[in-house]
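Extended Data, panel c. Modelled sequence:
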Amino acid sequence: MSAPASLNAKTIPPDRINLSPASRNTVISGASGRTFMGTRAVRQRVALADTVIPGFTPRMPAIVEEVENPAVELTYPDGDTFGVADADGQVYVRPLHAKRLAVHFCGWEALQELGGAVDKLNRLDIFQQPISTYIDTPDQTDASTTPTDHAVFITAKERGQYTIKTGTEAGTAEGSAYINAQLRNIFGGAESLNANASLGTRTRSAYSANFDTPVLSNPDLRWQVGGLASSTLKHWASHEEILKGGNTRFLWQTGARSKHEFMYSGLWRQVTGLAEKASPTVRADAGDSFKSSLTHTWTNDTRDLPMLPSRGYLLKTVTELAGFGPLQGDVGFGKFQFDSQAAVPIPIPGIPGESGVSFTAGLRGGLLLPLSPGAQPQATQSRLNDRFQLGGPTDVRGFRLSGLGPRDGQDAVGGDVFAAGGAALLVPLPRVGKETPLRLQAFINGGRLLALKSADSPEKVDGAHDGGASGNLLATLGELTKKLPSAAAGIGLVYAHPAARFELNFSLPLVVRKGEEGRKGLSFGVGIDFL
């Protein structure tokens, strides 16, 4: 396919371009500095002489990248040798000079900005990899070009319009089969529609659909709307939970690593299928409830490999408000969670470069404060399906799933306040090498999960006091530090797959409270979020 003629920002109006489904098999052309896409590979020539590079900010509703502020021209200062050479050694990128900004703008900065524009296109997730760029001298036969023009070619090929996947998954105490269907670039604006269905041993059924679109063609600002229906067997609390509802959310990025999500969700929830020996606490919460809530999630993640970090840190907070004021519903609470992790590489004398040995430490916690839902005169006790659960192979190892915290008979009924922490030393296996995602780990972790006490609460928590939810919360927070946490230590193998982390550990409980369920011996964990 031959490239279109060179375009110049002075002669081509900045018209809007929309890649509709009907035009996917055509080459789109238009204003200078934009990237165009179709199912064929597209090469678009851009005249750098009439464009600027501080930004490559997308402004069009179609999926384009636009170079703003036509204020840059190419200059060739004497003695300068910086540039990019072609196969014949011809240097064809030299420093740029912004006339309006009165600053020296070198070719390397221009290439960085061009790379940033291509990275934005990659994040739209509708193009095949890689999206390539090529810089050349302008077409000398084009009368609109000048000797200082340089042509930039961006080659992009759209991915298939749909993908269907089926498979099986094995996780912590669960196996499932699933089917996933995805439609891409539905209306030509990088929209996508995802539909999922799965059947499993613990999550008996789960169905969801989610529509996602970038806002103003910006991959760092997205809007989503979706719905779900699921049925999950919660054997640790002798019941089955059915969820049906929907949500809408905005997602935006405020830095290279900082992300925000603001979501509204409405869920009809049913605690049903009680076991014959279900406890009074579980039976008291059986039946229907409707949760209407707003949730904000902030994540700052600088880890090099989230599944197996050797350097960097993670900070994450989740704040949820349900049933308060205009949110209505028959469930009211304020809920806050935080999660943190840090990793540092450990140099080993005699081993040049990275040794592959790293130390990681994590701390997480949360609190749940019951509020008055809707117009009810006073706050009610928290419900079973809103409380925190703690323990298992993916958080506090050495304990059974939901093995920590308040219990009523054989049921883990959850808690309102928790804190957990852990540390691990990861070492490459001998004869395997540090390049593989396989590590030997030695770990220690622990935590506590407590419930707020009220006059009609069947749970008994040491250190909790009557006198209102606020007073109970402060007293329970103080209780976290009064005694040793439940703890365990062990060794194991870690394999970091791109989709999930796998752990096989031998654990030894060190501190176990009465009623809690420790687990000595081997345990297997699969997940993406480990303590």
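DSSP finds three helices and 24 strands in the chain. This feature is highlighted in the accompanying rendering.
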